[in-house]
Specification:
Blueprint lengths: L3 E5 L4 E5 L2 E6 L3 E5 L5 E5 L8 E10 L3 E9 L4 E8 L13 E4 L5 E5 L1
Antiparallel strand pairs: 1-4, 2-3, 2-10, 4-5, 5-9, 6-7, 7-8, 8-9
InterPro entries: DUF427, DUF427_sf
Organism: Antarctobacter heliothermus
Protein name: Guanylate cyclase
Length: about 110
Protein backbone atom coordinates (compact mmCIF):
# COMPACT_ATOMS: atom_id res chain seq x y z
CA UNK A 1 0.00 0.00 0.00
CA UNK A 2 1.08 3.52 -0.69
CA UNK A 3 2.11 5.53 2.35
CA UNK A 4 -0.08 8.64 2.61
CA UNK A 5 0.17 11.25 5.33
CA UNK A 6 -2.21 14.18 5.74
CA UNK A 7 -1.26 17.07 8.00
CA UNK A 8 -2.48 20.64 8.47
CA UNK A 9 -0.66 22.91 6.01
CA UNK A 10 1.40 25.46 7.92
CA UNK A 11 0.43 29.08 7.37
CA UNK A 12 -1.93 30.59 4.84
CA UNK A 13 -2.14 29.20 1.31
CA UNK A 14 -3.49 30.84 -1.82
CA UNK A 15 -4.44 29.51 -5.25
CA UNK A 16 -4.37 31.77 -8.31
CA UNK A 17 -5.44 31.13 -11.88
CA UNK A 18 -4.90 33.53 -14.73
CA UNK A 19 -3.70 36.09 -12.19
CA UNK A 20 -6.94 36.01 -10.17
CA UNK A 21 -7.09 34.67 -6.62
CA UNK A 22 -9.49 31.70 -6.48
CA UNK A 23 -9.10 31.17 -2.78
CA UNK A 24 -7.06 31.61 0.34
CA UNK A 25 -7.05 29.36 3.38
CA UNK A 26 -5.35 28.94 6.71
CA UNK A 27 -7.12 25.57 7.04
CA UNK A 28 -5.54 23.80 4.06
CA UNK A 29 -4.19 20.25 4.31
CA UNK A 30 -0.92 18.83 3.01
CA UNK A 31 -1.17 15.36 1.50
CA UNK A 32 2.11 13.54 1.01
CA UNK A 33 2.04 10.28 -0.92
CA UNK A 34 5.15 8.17 -1.50
CA UNK A 35 6.60 8.84 -4.95
CA UNK A 36 4.54 12.00 -5.59
CA UNK A 37 5.04 15.70 -4.86
CA UNK A 38 3.18 17.15 -1.87
CA UNK A 39 -0.35 18.35 -2.72
CA UNK A 40 -2.25 21.10 -0.88
CA UNK A 41 -5.98 20.47 -0.44
CA UNK A 42 -8.12 23.56 0.19
CA UNK A 43 -11.46 23.47 2.01
CA UNK A 44 -14.10 24.01 -0.68
CA UNK A 45 -15.64 26.77 1.43
CA UNK A 46 -12.43 28.81 0.99
CA UNK A 47 -12.48 28.55 -2.83
CA UNK A 48 -14.55 30.65 -5.26
CA UNK A 49 -16.28 27.58 -6.70
CA UNK A 50 -18.19 29.80 -9.19
CA UNK A 51 -14.97 29.90 -11.26
CA UNK A 52 -14.81 26.10 -11.39
CA UNK A 53 -16.83 23.99 -13.77
CA UNK A 54 -17.21 20.26 -13.09
CA UNK A 55 -16.15 18.11 -16.04
CA UNK A 56 -16.96 14.51 -16.94
CA UNK A 57 -13.35 13.51 -16.25
CA UNK A 58 -12.72 11.17 -13.32
CA UNK A 59 -9.81 9.08 -12.12
CA UNK A 60 -9.55 6.29 -9.58
CA UNK A 61 -6.84 5.97 -6.98
CA UNK A 62 -6.60 2.64 -5.13
CA UNK A 63 -5.70 4.51 -1.92
CA UNK A 64 -7.89 7.62 -2.08
CA UNK A 65 -10.92 6.62 -4.18
CA UNK A 66 -12.59 8.33 -7.16
CA UNK A 67 -11.62 11.89 -8.05
CA UNK A 68 -13.94 14.32 -9.79
CA UNK A 69 -12.36 17.04 -11.90
CA UNK A 70 -13.09 20.70 -12.52
CA UNK A 71 -11.93 23.18 -15.14
CA UNK A 72 -11.00 26.68 -14.01
CA UNK A 73 -12.50 29.54 -15.99
CA UNK A 74 -10.37 32.68 -16.01
CA UNK A 75 -10.79 35.83 -18.08
CA UNK A 76 -8.22 34.77 -20.64
CA UNK A 77 -8.35 30.98 -20.72
CA UNK A 78 -9.89 27.79 -19.40
CA UNK A 79 -7.60 25.44 -17.48
CA UNK A 80 -9.11 22.06 -18.34
CA UNK A 81 -9.34 19.50 -15.52
CA UNK A 82 -7.02 21.67 -13.41
CA UNK A 83 -8.65 20.89 -10.05
CA UNK A 84 -9.85 17.71 -8.44
CA UNK A 85 -11.76 16.59 -5.40
CA UNK A 86 -12.40 13.27 -3.67
CA UNK A 87 -16.05 13.65 -2.74
CA UNK A 88 -16.30 10.22 -1.11
CA UNK A 89 -12.70 9.38 -0.17
CA UNK A 90 -11.61 6.10 1.35
CA UNK A 91 -11.69 5.98 5.17
CA UNK A 92 -7.89 6.27 5.55
CA UNK A 93 -7.93 9.69 3.85
CA UNK A 94 -11.35 10.91 4.98
CA UNK A 95 -9.85 14.29 5.99
CA UNK A 96 -9.75 15.37 2.32
CA UNK A 97 -13.54 15.13 1.92
CA UNK A 98 -14.97 18.57 1.02
CA UNK A 99 -11.49 19.72 -0.07
CA UNK A 100 -10.15 20.51 -3.53
CA UNK A 101 -6.64 20.38 -4.98
CA UNK A 102 -5.17 22.17 -7.98
CA UNK A 103 -2.80 21.10 -10.74
CA UNK A 104 0.04 23.61 -10.70
CA UNK A 105 0.77 24.62 -14.30
CA UNK A 106 1.48 27.68 -16.40
CA UNK A 107 -1.10 30.17 -15.15
CA UNK A 108 -2.15 28.17 -12.06
CA UNK A 109 -0.17 28.66 -8.82
CA UNK A 110 -0.53 27.29 -5.29
CA UNK A 111 1.68 29.01 -2.76
CA UNK A 112 2.06 29.88 0.89
CA UNK A 113 1.66 33.60 1.56
Amino acid sequence: MSNITITPATGTWVVRAGGAVLGESSNALELQEDGYPMVVYFPRGDIAMAFLDRTDHTTACPHKGAANYFSIMSKSTTYVNAAWSYEDPKADVSQIKDHIAFSVQDGVAVERV
